[in-house]
Design brief:
The protein is an alpha/beta fold and 283 residues long. The protein has helices at residues 20-31, 43-54, 70-84, 107-135, 158-177, 196-202, 206-213, 224-235, 263-266, 269-282; strands at 11-15, 35-40, 60-64, 89-92, 139-144, 183-190, 246-249. Strand 4 (89-92), helix 4 and strand 5 form a beta-alpha-beta unit. It starts with 10 loop residues before the first strand and ends with a helix. Bound molecules: hexanoyl-coenzyme A (HXC). Hexanoyl-coenzyme A (HXC) binds next to helix 4 and helix 6.
């Protein structure tokens, strides 16, 4: 669907780009002509990912850094700009999450997630925004949030829900504040897309995973390609008039809270239709 050079002349940093959804997005961006910087904490993962990314023929480099460290992130931005000559896009993808009853959380556990997700996104965004504003250069920021970042929040992932809500607020606040500098800030709220990082932490058993599927009208988990395509569109000039938006991509899962949606799970669709007919006849 995309032209091969859709992201040519772009240099995009993807945090947590060494694996999972970050790597899938990086691959799509490289396929569409972008030069790629990825960062993360695990050098082995980053090295391997870089080799895979190089196959698309664009300039690729990895940077070993923890998004929680503001000064180290600043040094990384200096290195990227030195190595590539410029930076045009940032994807705040690095995240941390685990399941826990909220009353059992330690302050350290809560802080670890807030530091990675909220502070990490701020740290990268703040350095990138300052660079763009000083250079008088247009740029693009894409924040990967979650479907529970607004409205309902979510039980058992309190630190993540609080942090992602903050990142969504940051998305909208900066979209307005930095719009005048030509900086677009958008978000994607992915539903369940299988990755090792999320699955091992959030889907403890096969039974749980199977049951979870029932919540998704599409009847399946997301395909990385689907998310990567959306991200590529949002990072491209095709979306130049789009800012402050959060696009959900979840096969309809987020809508499962509709007041009468649950009756579908009480009996089969066929039996349900019969029951509706009987109710109509009773009238
Ligand atoms: C309760 C936990 C815990 C757990 C860690 N902690 N794991 N508490 N349950 N499962 C607590 C520790 O006890 C410690 O608290 C504090 O958190 C920090 O733990 P460390 O292991 O020292 O931290 P660190 O090495 O920095 O690791 C951070 C991490 C780790 C978040 C805990 O899991 C990680 O690095 N994750 C990155 C990858 C990831 O999580 N991917 C999933 C993203 S999925 P004390 O009090 O002892 O100091 C996602 C999308 C969700 O976000 C949507 C899916 C549908």
């Amino acid at each position: 669907m995309f032209k091969e050079d859709t992201l040519k002349n772009e240099v995009i940093l993807i945090t947590g780009g060494g694996s999972g959804l970050g790597l899938s997005m990086a691959k799509k961006f490289a396929e569409l002509g972008a030069d790629i910087a990825i960062c993360g904490r695990t050098e082995k993962k980053l090295e391997k990912a870089t080799e895979e990314l190089k196959e698309f023929g664009t300039h690729v480099r990895w940077y070993s850094v923890d998004v929680r460290d503001y000064d180290a992130i600043g040094e990384m931005f200096d290195s990227i700009i030195n190595d590539f000559g410029k930076l045009t896009g940032l994807v705040n993808n690095a995240a941390g999450n685990f399941l826990s009853a909220s009353e059992d959380l330690s302050p350290g556990g809560f802080k670890a997630i807030v530091d990675i997700v909220l502070h990490g996104s701020f740290n990268c965004t703040h350095h990138f925004g300052n660079y763009l504003i000083k250079q008088k250069q247009r740029g693009n920021i894409l924040n990967i949030v979650t479907t529970y970042a607004e409205d309902a929040g979510s039980a058992f992932v309190l630190p993540s829900a609080c942090s992602k809500a903050g990142v969504l607020a940051m998305t909208r606040s900066l979209a307005y504040e930095w719009g005048t500098y030509g900086i677009r800030v958008n978000a994607i709220a992915p539903g369940p897309f299988p990755t090792e990082g999320a699955w091992t932490r959030l889907f403890p058993t096969k039974k749980f995973e199977k049951k979870y599927l029932k919540k998704i009208p599409a009847g399946r988990y997301g395909d990385h390609e689907e998310l990567a395509n959306l991200a590529a569109f949002m990072m491209s000039d095709m979306a130049n008039y789009m800012t402050g938006e959060c696009v959900t991509i979840d096969g309809g899962e987020k809508l499962s809270g509709g007041q009468f949606n649950f009756i579908d799970s009480v009996m089969s669709r066929g039996k349900l239709k019969l029951a509706f007919k009987m109710l109509k006849m009773k009238k």
